[in-house]
Design goal:
Order of helices and strands: HHHHHHHHHHHHHHHHHHH
Number of domains: 2
Helix content: over 70%
Distance between the termini: 26 Å
CATH superfamily of the largest domain: MFS general substrate transporter like domains
CATH topology of the largest domain: Growth Hormone, Chain: A
Low-confidence stretches: none
Radius of gyration: 22 Å
Shape: globular
Mean pLDDT: 88
CATH class of the largest domain: Mainly Alpha
Number of helices: 19
Length: 425
């Protein structure tokens, strides 16, 4: 891996912290739903609308983010992001208007994606050589988890000592804005004016790629397939396992919340560090992802057959979450072996992200209907079984996608070792 000098570490920390804050502050309602609703006197519908404002804006901004990251420096985009989040979070803390709150969440979506996401992926990818891509992405994911844990518990402490939910949320948001401001200062000091360059990159710096180049690159589409299947595993493993333990396994809500904390914080940290190290041990990352997807299938089948054994089922839900987080923390590291050039990273990640996160709009309502229908029929377990069947099918498609990645990597190796051949775009 590229030698981690203090300055390189600071670049890594600032990038990881920027994403951690951008994907925590607009989503505090998930952790502090009741306090959020009480603080701003919102109905459940209004809380849902704030979520939709972020999600819709974010989805539209993925391609925009790729263009920005391709044309502007990493330093400029991160400063804009952190500056924007500092100002908007202060406004969030002070507002009492629902209309203004909706505008604020639209801005959160814009700054979190358009000026940050592709720039972050491009910057992190360029901090390590080809052999350590999984390690650098996994370590960044784990670092994000550490920062979010610290900020989350600080926010919880502020809510605990505040006299009212409104005061607690106000001062918690001001604290979060202060953290954004601190990292803005660090970014101003430590981020270089020139973008980081990967230590093993021999690509000409003046190579310019277009959206046409991205569409024609086989590796982009293989990456989309692998990432979408892995992301679906993560969505189900993180979002539905806690409620499964309550509604089907019949454990208490307090116990389920404790398991949710393990799943959301401890597993994320372990999966990031361990997953990055493990996947980099595979010469071909496609083989690693074939193994991960097969494990998800096997554990999910075991879970559907073990609901009568509560202890075993709980362990299996945590195992699924761990494997899913290993994939999520490392899946961007496959771009090298998929044949996506470093200079294409910014534009490619914008297109890839736009496509792979589209299911966020679809699976929530679909899964919700399955669960509602099953509950109405008096057998909620059938609803979860349909979700698990969906996960198994997605993972089987993931196995096929990972195999295509393996073939793609070997094809590129053969082209590289054949002087007269012309590499694919």
């Amino acid at each position: 891996m590229k030698k981690f000098t203090f300055k390189t570490f600071m670049i890594f920390l600032i990038l990881s912290a920027s994403v951690a804050l951008a994907y925590q502050i607009p989503y505090l309602r998930y952790t502090f739903y009741d306090q959020f609703a009480a603080a701003y006197q919102l109905t459940n519908v209004q809380v849902g609308l704030t979520a939709s404002a972020v999600s819709f804006t974010s989805t539209l901004c993925y391609p925009i983010g790729g263009i920005f990251a391709d044309r502007f420096s990493l330093r400029s985009l991160i400063l804009i992001t952190l500056g924007g989040f500092t100002i908007v979070t202060v406004a969030f803390a002070m507002t009492t208007s629902f209309i203004l709150m909706m505008i604020i969440h639209v801005l959160f979506g814009f700054f979190g994606i358009a000026t940050l996401w592709s720039a972050y992926l491009n910057g992190i990818r360029n901090l390590a050589d080809e052999d350590n891509q999984s390690k650098i992405f996994g370590s960044s994911e784990a670092t994000r988890g550490i920062i979010q844990t610290i900020v989350g518990f600080a926010f919880l402490g502020i809510l605990g000592v505040a006299s009212t939910p409104a005061d607690g949320f106000k001062y918690g948001l001001l604290f979060s804005a202060a953290v954004c401001g601190i990292f803005f200062v660090l970014a101003f000091i430590y981020l270089p004016k020139e973008n980081p360059k990967a230590p093993d990159s021999d690509e000409a710096s003046d190579v310019q790629y277009t959206f046409g180049d991205i569409i024609k690159n086989k590796g982009v589409w293989i990456t989309i397939m692998v990432l979408m299947c892995a992301y679906l595993s993560w969505t189900i493993g993180n979002n539905y396992m806690t409620t499964y333990t309550v509604q089907v396994l019949q454990i208490s809500q307090n116990t389920a919340s404790m398991l949710g904390i393990i799943r959301s914080y401890i597993i994320v940290l372990l999966a990031g560090f361990i997953g990055g190290i493990v996947l980099d041990k595979f010469t071909y990352k496609g083989k690693g992802f074939i193994l991960f997807f097969i494990l998800v299938v096997a554990v999910t089948v075991a879970l559907t057959a073990s609901s009568s054994m509560v202890g075993l089922s709980i362990v299996l839900t945590l195992v699924i979450a761990f494997i899913a987080n290993v994939m999520k923390s490392t899946y961007w590291s496959i771009m090298d072996q998929a044949g996506i050039p470093l200079g294409m990273t910014a534009l490619a990640t914008g297109v890839i992200s736009f496509i792979i996160f589209v299911p966020d709009f679809l699976i929530g309502p679909i899964f919700g209907k399955w669960l509602d229908d099953a509950a109405a029929a008096g057998n909620i377990a059938n609803g979860f079984n349909r979700i698990f069947i969906f996960l198994i099918v997605a993972s089987i498609v993931g196995v096929i996608s990972a195999y295509l990645l393996l073939r793609r990597t070997k094809e590129l190796e053969n082209q590289k070792n054949t002087p007269q051949s012309i590499p694919e775009p």
